[in-house]
Predict the structure.
Amino acid sequence: MPLYEHVFISRQDLSNTQAESLIEHFGTVLADNGGKLVDHEYWGVKTMAYKINKNRKGHYAFLRVDAPAAAVQEMERLMRLHDDVMRVLTIKVDEHAEGPSVQMQKRDERERGPRGDRGDRGDRGDRR
């Protein structure tokens, strides 16, 4: 079956448990249509670049999905009809990345280079 990565944003006035229950709900939608939810991450409440439906913040959730196209289309259709979901993005991928997503990695791990340092700082010259 094809592999997908899916991100959706839900309204900011939901509680954390309500936002996480949306992940469970849409996971069951996938299962009912012959797919499966491989992994999911709740990224928390984040500030958006611009307002969506008068909301400045939103609950972000990330899903790794192994499902046929029809199951993903049905999940997206139900998300677009759901009042609490503001935005939906689904991308087809060749394979799922191992470990946590970039959003869940520690900030210093992302900024470090392959040697674990801060990278080349260039010539600093004479500092007096």
Summary: Helices lie at 16-32, 69-81, 107-111.
